[in-house]
Amino acid sequence: MPAKAAKTPEARETPEAGETPEIPEAPARRGTLRIGVGGPVGAGKTSLVAALCRTLGEELSIAVVTNDAHAAQDAAFLVERGSLDAERITAVQTGGSPHAAIRDDIAANLEAVESLEAALDPLDLVLIESGGGSLSATFSRGLIDRQIFVIDVAAGERLPRKGGLGITSADLLVVNKTDLAPHVPADLEVMRRDAAAQRAAGPGGIVRETPLPTLFTSLSEHPGAPAVADWVRGLIVEHRSPAAA
Amino acid sequence: MPIFHMTRSALLLLADSRFPAGAHAHSGGLESAVAAGRVHDTATLHAFLTGRLHTAALVAASFAAAACHCENAETLAELDHEYDIRLLSPALRTASRRLGKQLLRTARTTWPVPRLNLLAATPDGGSHHPVVLGVVCAAAGIAPEDAALCAVQGAITVPADAAIRLLGLDPGEVSGVLAKLAPPADRTASKALTLARMAQLKNDFSMLPALGSPLLDLAAEDHATWEARLYAS
Ligand SMILES: Nc1nc2c(ncn2[C@@H]2O[C@H](COP(=O)(O)OP(=O)(O)OP(=O)(O)O)[C@@H](O)[C@H]2O)c(=O)[nH]1
Ligand SMILES: [Mg+2]
């Protein structure tokens, strides 16, 4: 398909004096808000993504990128529980290193996001679920606008105290499965206090002006994740306002 | 005078398996070979990589060298077509185009020079990886012989990295396997360069090598249907 190439018939490697060479640009960002959802294995990332799709699906055009080896299972779950069309879901493989695919080499995820944005234009929201990873597996800012880190009450009440980049610096920390607290047992007050302390301080322990937010959820009791959905709505409003640019 | 001068450091940057262009999620057929028990230790890995050197690596390297030399979009489209018809497995064709697209995207931010515009007209799926690699090399100030070397290295380091993860092989021993393969890898790259030059002289890219590995093609088709897989190919 050489027609379009006629625009630059020869590679001009020697820009004339004063002339700006035509530098190839990455695909322009569309208006889509990109949110990463990370956290350890089994914390409830896919459940949260499905909940958001169902709660926000009426008001927003949403797509999802998954990073799990079991792509077909994730897709089936999102179609069933998130009422999402299958064409709105793309799976990316990570070579067994979930953190690499969301942070060190985001090429495959970026390509998946851009393809969804092009195919489903205009898209309001893309949710990128990372494969279950370590407490320090956070998303690159080159891939997402905001990130949610999901942890699980059943992993023990000491988890927030351990910190790690996800807990200390994700834009939203979700402590999920509060319904399991009596069975663990875990004291939710201790978790709340420790999480607040972790999120009040930035890198190097410098106190943040405003602590980062934390939400406690039980997706089995509130399958629509209303509080997290409200947080996303707030971001959408912010993202759409001209000042955001 | 290109914006990026001929530089060996650029070659090291691009050939590094940490260069963020998506290759880490590909195994070059190794995930299937491991599952089938064909590769299970350093000796069988060595045999697998030797096979790659004489087939996929040589083909990819000759296309990368030819593309690196190429200065117009029409000829690149021809090269892309020639590479396409050499890949028998649709899954491998898709994987190669995806990798090409991802490499081009990363290169745009790494070496933002007009040379990359040569690929601007390629269809939605993107050009094949070796073709993009050649153009990216030219953009980065890497010569055709080094573009060939880079393609050869990629063809063997991708499965070698996957072997470390999938089989838990000692990473030092895997490096040892790659070191042993360095002389034949160099020879493959020189041969690829010669073949690319001959094709250029005759202005006939159908002369470029067309070596395949039927078992890898079949395995790639099967791999694409797995219920759970770590690697994209
Ligand atoms: N009791 C309880 N179970 C939950 C809750 N949220 C999720 N689960 C269950 O926890 C299990 C794991 O949930 P997923 O949503 O698959 O977790 P994930 O983080 O996506 O898991 P990976 O992708 O495998 O890392 C499932 O069996 C869910 O039904 C909750 O709030 N309470
Ligand atoms: Mg999941």
TrEMBL record, chain A:
Belongs to the SIMIBI class G3E GTPase family. UreG subfamily. Residues 35-200 form the CobW/HypB/UreG nucleotide-binding domain. InterPro entries: CobW/HypB/UreG_nucleotide-bd (IPR003495), P-loop_NTPase (IPR027417), UreG (IPR004400). The keyword Transcription does not apply. Pfam families: cobW (PF02492). One of its GO terms (biological process) is urea catabolic process. GO terms for molecular function: GTP binding; GTPase activity; nickel cation binding. It comes from the Bacteria. Keywords: Chaperone, GTP-binding, Nickel insertion, Nucleotide-binding. It comes from Actinospica acidithermotolerans. Signal peptide: none annotated. This is Urease accessory protein UreG. Residues 1-31 are annotated as: Disordered. The keyword GTP-binding applies.
